[in-house]
Structure prediction request, 349 residues.
Amino acid sequence: MSRITELIDKLEKNRILSKEELSEIISEHTPETDEYLFARARTVRERVYGKDVYIRGLIEFTNYCRNDCLYCGIRRSAEKAERYRLNEEQILECCETGYGLGFRTFVLQGGEDGFYSDDKIVSIVSLIKAKYPDCAVTLSIGEKSRGSYERYRQAGADRYLLRHETADPVHYGKLHPKGLTLENRMRCLSDLKELGFQTGCGFMVGSPYQTAENLAGDLLYIHRLQPQMVGIGPFIPHHDTPFANEMAGTLETTLLMLGLTRLIVPNVLLPATTALGTIHPKGREMGILAGANVVMPNLSPTDVRKKYLLYDNKICTGDEAAECISCLGRRMESIGYKLVSARGDCKKY
Ligand code: 5AD
Ligand code: FES
Prediction:
């Protein structure tokens, strides 16, 4: 037993470690201790979710955004981004296609686009829930007031994704323009949880200026919030942003963070993200083997997929969702897991 594997055992048992201990794992892990961690994470995950992998149909319905996050390819200042919006009818068509493919969760993701007033969001959510009462609707549309979140929840939205991006206010300030604060992000996340959303926070691995201590802080925040979902993917530079020349996050550190997150919140819904699949051809499979249990194929109309470019070289821009899903199914079977058609709610354990 090495010092690191002892810390991993202690994390599995207590669900948390000190910031120093977490930083130690993050800076001193090796391929051998990673294997040890991933095996523990798989056991924990299989105790709660078995070998099932949940699918979510991602509908990227607008790439207009009033924000200007320095890392993001659809930030307001990205003048070359070709902007688009889907109307209600187009969104419902995505759901129809998705339903036929077996999706029972639809994730409506978009930039912070004032065009979609609360009334419009409420109307879209209500329409989807009326037409597909057996499906979950997840919103991922950014920072709003508690009152807005309350209205979405009343309209039937089940889940909400809002990555915290980094739990360190100073680091947060280096990734975002003035006016966006970690404090408000965290306020949003506690409101969402209190309102009864299955709530997802998360962060990028290898974002500019990130340290091992920052990542340890992210894990501590996750432990504190006890979210039902956590989105973790590598930072990937986008050519038309201030971070164009920064390094991408690594596969190794991303997998490490997935494994550690599984031990901290055993029943968490944890996607093997598109960004992970983008930096390595087997990235999503490796994510599942490190403790993830969700994949989120793209259900957006094919012609807009290449316009929703948060980072360069995003995968799946050419494939039809239909092809993606059967080929993804085979990929999961090749590693002993199985894609299931289910809402895939967060399980009590
Ligand atoms: N690389 C990786 N992930 C990114 N995101 C935004 N820009 C990038 C990028 N360049 C992530 C953010 C955001 C989510 C929708 O996408 O974490 O919360
Ligand atoms: Fe903030 Fe895209 S502008 S994540």
Observations:
- Residues 71-72, 163, 165, 204, 233, 235-236, 238, 275, 310-311 surround 5'-deoxyadenosine (ligand 1) (CB under 6 Å).
- The chain has a mean pLDDT of 96.
- The radius of gyration is 19 Å.
